[in-house]
């Protein structure tokens, strides 16, 4: 089996009605392109190539390793099985069950390739949750589907968490794609402690020594001593104390409206923490996305393989216009390569760097 450095990356096409195919095609026009293949639909990727400027050949391959034999400036596509023959006719910028089903098939086959050693890592283009639901896919998003696919048949899926990262801030989430009411109920001692452990293990890849893990509270002002909610006293603080007893440099809970500013690594402002654990999806993702979705990368922690994704959705409003910015996708590719080959650390990446698409 080839080493990770010599195996290609598997890129999933994402929702065919969104900007996923376009940002992939745009990335293949950049100076960074190469060492990767698309698990998707040839016709959809040819349309994406035309939308992003044309004159970009798309070649159907039978195996991921065949991509290495193709000339530069060519998109290798491994045609996913089970995709609707008329997928390319699904309207751009709209929810379509055919696109949801195809996106799921691409993910399934790409994961199988990575797990079999045929690809070094997985980079996923955006899916649309409503299209997933329309196709009857029983997962609310990428993270939950990847968690299920990571387990052997009949085995308990591994605990996974979402980390969103850019050059300035990294956050790991206790809860993800559920309603806010259910998310609050899901903030338990075990869930918080497990997330701190996963965040600490991930941070050891990019922080020297013992990573500094900040834990955000759930309530305004972290509960203000129980005046605005007692989850900090009953759940979060005991989990932090338990993590510290295990040797993890965790601290908090801190007020969620200020802890991200304290953790941010900016020019002239070294962050106080290496990673922040946030209780809910929007608590953790808003500050990272505010710094620029074009630089953010979503990393699924806890999987037995590397998976990264751009920090944005399907952008139906601009699908088909050929104007989608591939910067976040490019950053996701760079991080996947670094994590897969082990040659560098996440913190050494300049996620905003690299050539832009022509």
Note down, in words, how this protein is organized:
The chain has 358 residues and is α/β, with parallel strands linked by helices. It has two domains: 4-159 and 303-348, Isopropylmalate Dehydrogenase, CATH 3.40.718; 167-285, Isopropylmalate Dehydrogenase (3-Layer(aba) Sandwich), CATH 3.40.718.10. It is 33% helix and 15% strand. It contains eleven helices and twelve strands. The protein has helices spanning 20-28, 42-51, 97-115, 129-134, 142-149, 180-186, 189-203, 231-245, 259-263, 281-290, 327-341, and strands at 9-12, 36-40, 58-61, 75-79, 122-124, 161-165, 170-173, 213-216, 250-254, 275-278, 297-301, 307-310. The chain has a twelve-stranded mixed beta sheet. Helix 1 (20-28) crosses helix 2 (42-51) and helix 7 (189-203) packs across helix 8. The longest helix is centred in the N-terminal third of the chain and has 19 residues, at 97-115. The radius of gyration is 20 Å and the shape is elongated. It starts with 8 loop residues before the first strand and ends in a 17-residue tail after the last helix.
């Amino acid at each position: 089996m080839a080493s990770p450095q010599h195996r290609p990356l598997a890129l999933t096409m994402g929702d065919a009605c969104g900007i996923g195919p376009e940002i992939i095609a745009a990335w293949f026009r950049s100076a960074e392109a190469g060492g990767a293949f698309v698990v998707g639909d040839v016709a959809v990727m040819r349309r994406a190539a035309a939308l992003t400027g044309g004159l970009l050949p798309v070649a159907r391959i039978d195996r991921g390793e065949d991509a290495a034999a193709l000339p530069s400036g060519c998109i290798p596509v491994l045609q996913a099985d089970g995709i609707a023959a008329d997928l390319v006719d699904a309207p751009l910028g709209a929810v379509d069950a055919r696109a949801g089903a195809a996106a799921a098939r691409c993910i399934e086959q790409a994961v199988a390739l990575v797990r079999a050693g045929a690809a070094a890592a997985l980079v996923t283009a955006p899916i649309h949750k409503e299209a997933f639901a329309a196709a009857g896919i029983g997962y609310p998003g990428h993270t939950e589907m990847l968690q299920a696919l990571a387990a052997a048949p009949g085995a308990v899926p591994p605990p996974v968490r979402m980390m969103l990262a850019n050059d300035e801030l990294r956050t790991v989430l206790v809860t993800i794609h559920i309603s806010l009411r259910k998310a609050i109920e899901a903030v338990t001692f075990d869930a918080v402690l497990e997330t701190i452990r996963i965040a600490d293990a991930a941070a050891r890849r990019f922080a020297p020594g013992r990573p500094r893990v900040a834990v955000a509270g759930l309530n305004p002002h972290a509960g203000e001593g129980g005046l605005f909610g007692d989850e900090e006293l009953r759940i979060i603080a005991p989990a932090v104390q338990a993590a510290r007893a295990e040797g993890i440099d965790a601290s908090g809970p801190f007020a969620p409206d200020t802890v991200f500013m304290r953790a941010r690594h900016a020019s002239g402002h070294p962050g106080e923490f290496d990673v922040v654990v946030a209780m809910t999806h929007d608590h953790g993702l808003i500050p990272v996305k505010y710094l620029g979705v074009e630089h953010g990368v979503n990393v699924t922690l806890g999987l037995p393989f590397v998976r990264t994704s751009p920090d944005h959705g399907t952008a139906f409003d601009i699908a088909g216009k050929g104007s989608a910015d591939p910067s976040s996708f490019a950053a996701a590719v760079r991080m996947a390569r670094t994590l897969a080959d082990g040659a560098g650390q996440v913190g050494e990446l300049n996620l905003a760097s690299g050539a832009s698409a022509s």
